[in-house]
Each structure stands twice: as C-alpha cells, then as structure tokens.
Amino acid sequence: MGGVELGTCSNIIRWIFILFNIPILLAGLATLGIGIWQLVVESALEEVLSEDYTSGGALFVASGILLIALSIIGVIGAFFKWRPVLLLYLAVVFLVIALEIASIAYVFAKADDIDEDQIEQDLIRALRRYYPSQDTANHDEDLNDVVDFIQDSLECCGVTNYTDWALYSPYTMQLGRLPASCCGRDEPAACPDIEAFNDDCREAFTEFVQDNLIIGGIIAIIFAVFEFSLLVMSFVLFMAINNALVLTSA
User: Fold this and answer.
1) Which of 19, 21, 51, 161 has its CA 20 to 30 A from that of 171?
2) Left (φ > 0), alpha (ψ -120 to 50) or beta: where does 175 sit?
3) Which pLDDT tens digit goes with each residue over 190-211?
4) What is the DSSP letter of 4?
5) What pLDDT band is residue 5 in, cutting at 50, 70 and 90?
6) Angle 128-129-133 (CA atoms, 0-180°, nearest 5)?
7) Across-strand partners of 156?
8) Angle of helix 201-249 versus helix 116-128 axis, rounded to 10
9) pTM value?
10) Residues paired with 199 in a beta bridge
11) DSSP symbols for 139-182
12) Gap between the Cα atoms of 53 and 205, Å rounded
C-alpha cells in the first residue's frame, strides 16, 4: 500500500504521527538509560544481598528497547504508508504498556517484602569477607568497595555499631583498626573509634534498598503515564491513517 495517495487531512495526520514518534524515541532512550543504571546498582548490591531486592532493571531495559523500536517502526510505517508495519506498531504498543505495568508491580511488591533481619545477616557475612588489601589470598576488592560505599554514602559503621568490625571482620582483627569508610575517609586513612559514624548500617541499608526500589517504581510510573499518553495519541493517529488507507484503496 506504499503507493496509495492520501488526502490533505490524512497527510497532515500522517506527518503529525511521524513527528509524534520523536518524543517516544526520547522516552525510550531515557528508559533504557535508567534500566542500565538500575542494572549497575543491582550488580553492586548482589555483592552483599542474598535476596533478590533488585528493581527490575532488565524490565526497564526491555521497555526502553521496545520504545526505541516502536518509534522506528512507527516512522517507517507512516512514511511508507504500510499497514502491516502499522499493525506491528500497534502490537508493540500493547507489549510496552504490559511491561511498564509489570515493572511497577514488581518494584512495589519488592519494596514491601524487605526482611531487615535477612539484611542484617547479609551485612554480617559481608564483614566476615572484608579482608585488608595486604591479605591477597582472601581480599575481594569488589566486596570491599560495596561495603565502603555503603558506610561512606549512608554515614554508618558496622551492622549495629562500629564494634561489629572487631567481632566479625578479619580486617579489624588483622590490622587492629576500623576501615577508613567508617569515618567517611579513603584508605589508608585512620579511623579512630571515637570518630566513627554512630548510625548502624542495618537500618540505613534497609532504607537505602527500599528507597532504591520505590524510586525505581516512581520513575516507572512517571514514564508509564507519559508513554501511555503518547501511545494513546499515536494509536488514534494510527487508526486515522489506517482508515484513510482503507477508504483510499477501496
């Protein structure tokens, strides 16, 4: 049907439809970027967490890729007036909406299912695996970086307090001191007990994981509302183009 001639009004609708896919493309790129960021966060959290408290980064990535594909399919279908391609566009629309709903449901369900006691046990295991860099046989730089990030960014020390390092960690047992991140400093700076953060990491990290999930869900809702409004309008434009093609070819 690529050779079908459309009327003036139908052509205006067709070009509006083509231009309308630009914000869909931008929304797809943004969703893809958020998904990649979420996957990076999830990968870091896996060093400490035994439970899957991730925020559905893979779903965001899938949604972003589908939105990008959606915009390209829409432009090609409208530009060349190909109804089969426009029909494919409609199918992708419903798939994107379904993925957005799944993402939102997933992250909020996870946010309500956080076990603080399990996180406490995960943090204790992390401290037991936290070795000084001098212990090359056991040192795990990725784990240490995550633990340091938790303490430094959340301004906390230990599981319940700084004394947990002496109880659980070979770092303090071997070096006789707290890691520098307990004072918000970089290694090999000293961190005297009296200067260590007072907040415990169990509660702070639980809130961090929960906030990360909620933020992911809120972002998904914002994008879902934005994308849904774009997709509904695109659907209306698609139907107008399709009806014009049917009437013209009849």
Assistant:
1) 51
2) alpha
3) 899 999 999 889 999 888 888 8
4) P
5) low
6) 120
7) 199
8) 110
9) 0.68
10) 156
11) --HHHHHHHHHHHHHHTB-SSSSTTHHHHH-HHHHHHSS--GGG
12) 12
CB atoms within 10 A of CB 112: 9
Residues 78 and 1: beta-carbon distance below 8 Å: no
Sole residue written with tokens 């369900």: 109
| Residue labelled with tokens 């690529």 | 2
Mean pLDDT in residue range 226-240: 72
The answer for residues whose C-beta is within 8 angstroms of residue 136's C-beta and 6 or more apart is none
Which token pair is 22? 């630009």
Reduce the DSSP state of residue 48 to 3 states and report it. Answer: coil
State yes or no: pLDDT of 72 exceeds 60: yes
Q: Tokens in use for 144?
A: 């240490």
Chain centre to alpha carbon of residue 172: 35
Q: What's the pLDDT tens digit per position in 17-68?
A: 788 888 888 888 888 888 888 787 777 777 777 666 655 677 778 878 888 8
Look up residue 211 and give its two tokens. 């906030």
| Cα torsion through 145, 149, 155, 161, rounded to 10 | -40
CA distance 207 to 95: 33
Contact (CB, 8 A) for 82 and 25: no
In angstroms, rounded to a whole number, what is the distance separating the alpha carbons of residues 98 and 234?
17
Q: What is the CA radius of gyration of the chain?
A: 26
CB of 149 closer than 8 Å to CB of 47 = no
In the three-class reduction of DSSP (H, G, I as helix; E, B as strand; rest coil), residue 24 is classed as helix
Contact 220, 99 (CB under 8 A): no
Asked if the model's pLDDT at residue 243 lies above 60, the reply is yes
Residues listed for the chain: 250
Determine the residue type at 17. Answer: F
**What pLDDT is stored for residue 4 in this prediction?**
54
